[in-house]
Amino acid sequence: MKWLILLILFGAVAAIIAMRYRRQIQTALYVWRMFKKMRQVNNTKEKKIERKETTGDVQLISCAKCETWIPQKNALKLRSKTFFCSANCMEKAVEVN
Ligand SMILES: [Zn+2]
Fold this sequence. Notes:
alpha+beta, 3 helices
């Protein structure tokens, strides 16, 4: 019973506040919605940028011989973690070894 009275009281107070500050609440809701929309736009923008970065991302590796930085897809791979910029470098490295 006590809870019911409290609930009704709370409801009444909320109703009074809502009626009194209806305009303010409407404005606040409007602003909040705008803010939410803006955030959504930002999120989609960020996602687009992220996608661009991942697709345009080229992993650079350094040549084991001359230490030139080149894209991994252009590198010549020897064993698992040794990369060379060209066949020349690879040959030189093999000769030394
Ligand atoms: Zn090289």
